[in-house]
Amino acid sequence: MAEEDKPQPPHTQAQIEQEAIRRMQAVLAGAVPLMPTLPLVAAAALWNRCGGWQLGAWLLAALLAPGLRYLLVRRYHAAAADAAGAVRWANEVTVSALLDGLAWGVAGMLFLVPDSPALQMLLITMIVGTSAGSVFVTSFWPLSEYAFAVPSVGLTALGLALQGSEGGVGMAIGLVFFLGILYGIMGQAHGMTMETIRLQFEKTALAESLQQQKEVAEQASLAKTHFLAAASHDLRQPLHALGLFVTAMRQRLRGSAHEPLADRIASSVAALEGLLNALLDVSRLDAGVMQPQRSPVALHDLLGRLGAEFAPLAQAKGLAWRSEGPEAMVDSDPALLETMLRNLLSNAVRYTPAGEVSLQWRSSGGQTVVRVQDTGVGIPPEHHRTVFREFFQLHNPERDRSKGLGLGLAVVERLGILLDHPLTLFSAPGRGTTFELALPALEAESTLATTATEGTADAIGLRVLVIDDEAGVRDAMALLLGDWGYRVTLASSVGEALSLLREAPQAIVADYRLRDERTGAEAIAQVRETWGANIPALIVTGDTAPDRLREASASGHPVLHKPVAAARLRAFLRHAVHAPQHGLA
Q1: Cβ neighbours around 431 below 10 Å, total
Q2: Which of 159, 186, 485, 574 could cross-link to 109 by cystine, CB 3.0-4.6 Å?
Q3: Are 101 and 138 in contact (CB under 8 A)?
Q4: DSSP state of 398
Q5: d(CA 389, CA 413)
């Protein structure tokens, strides 16, 4: 078909803009009732230290913007009958966002308590988290994001700088950099959003042609993948540093009056890390870089641990818990198998309002079948395939985060294919759900169980080389590893590392993507060439792009994905204590 003969999509830029504003209104309609929560929480946390007319006046001002936004959402259909009306309505929302941003910016200037790092971190986390989290809501109309983020983050940075301390100035500079990163991500998000809407118009126009519909869907999927790959690395870097800082803060506040607040901050950071790690699991599986490490698995021990974890959760909901099965050995990757079963059990407990959750297993005919069964709401037959799609949640139309993200079964299905563990679903509405997982059984005499007890304590004075081009990550690593008793050398590049080293490091932790198109694997190789070939090394990466994941996996070094849990980092360093050293020191 000649180019001029192709049907042209019946849409204009004004129509696309109007549709974007309509979608923003739909998202705001669900979010606005929750917006007063943060000001109320902030005021409650600050009241004992900052209580008075100023805090009360601020709270009234901070609640005014969500109230105005609620009224705007209610009058959307009357105000946005055409494209011009929709733009006027969006500009009014932008004004309400500006008022909101000014209110939070004033809080960042007036209520940063210098002698309470926990309260400072709580307020900064609320401001930064709201700015970052609203990207996916405001990507339909970027002016509303800038109207909130610039005054809220900018005034907070000014308040920190005016404190005059080195820490305050450093955090102020960090917030300014955050605004720059947010601006770049917002531009990408808006471009992808508008492109997605445009593609939706084209898909509607070409609905009569199945092949053309398929091409449009593939383009939309590719756009989503490109956006996640571009944005994920930049989001993971500050989150990785934040997680390390929070771990160090919890250690220093342990036993103090601020410990519960630090625990709540850590819980929020862990929830955000869980979201990114779930996305990473799907990305790694799709990229084909997750390689199973098969070994004999004592199923009774594994399921016993999971039972001890989930039985209290089930009983807390008033559910009966049953777990039974014989001693059994199976051939699998123990970590990946545990992930599969944990996801299935988590869903069973989450979606069973009353009755029982059971975990059973039996061996027969060369295989062991594990059954996770519940008496929950059930799944209609027409959704037995769609429940394995990413982000699909049958019983969570309101997208309640406490009910998960819709990624658990997608990961389970992919891992089952990777490990060659067939998964079968039996379910009907009102009759509960049963998942059966078939595992290859092993004879007891053909298995060999080994345990490793070395590397269980920190080695005070262990020399650790950290190579990362992000200053915030280096500072966080220095603080955390120093608290653990390690001697840390920090470098932004391999050249700087080689110039700083005076003796062989006993462990190397390197970011994968370094400056000047260099990689962490190349940096490790150069350090080993100078100081010894067997220095234990770890690569950390914030990339989720499939080609980057394949490169990091192919390096031959263990890889951890940002944000790295402090416990996993500590486990690597403790193991390095007992690794054979052949340095040149």
Answers
A1: 13
A2: 159
A3: no
A4: T
A5: 9
By residue count, the chain amounts to 585
Is 53 exposed, middle or buried (CB count within 10 Å of its CB: 0-12, 13-18, 19+)?
Answer: exposed
Radius of gyration of the chain (CA): 27
CB-neighbour burial class of residue 5 (10 A; exposed 0-12, middle 13-18, buried 19+): exposed
Each residue's pLDDT tens digit, 566-579: 777 887 888 776 55
> How far is 218 from 19, CA to CA, in rounded Å?
21
Q: Is residue 306's pLDDT more than 70?
A: yes
Distance CA 290, CA 307 (A): 27
Residues with Cβ within 8 Å of 457's Cβ and at least 6 positions away in sequence, in order, are 574, 577
The pTM of this model reads 0.40
In angstroms, the CA 86 to CA 82 distance is 6
Enclosing H/E stretch for 371: strand 367-374
| pLDDT per residue as tens digits for the range 357-382 | 999 999 888 889 999 999 888 888 88
How does strand 295-298 pair with strand 329-332? antiparallel
d(CA 436, CA 361): 9
Please check whether residue 90 is in contact with residue 76, taking contact to mean a CB–CB distance below 8 angstroms: no
CA angle, 390 then 396 then 401, to 5°: 80
Confirm if 241 and 473 have CB atoms less than 8 A apart.
yes
**What's CA 313's distance to the chain center, in Å?**
23
Q: Which single residue is written with the structure tokens 């944000």?
A: 563
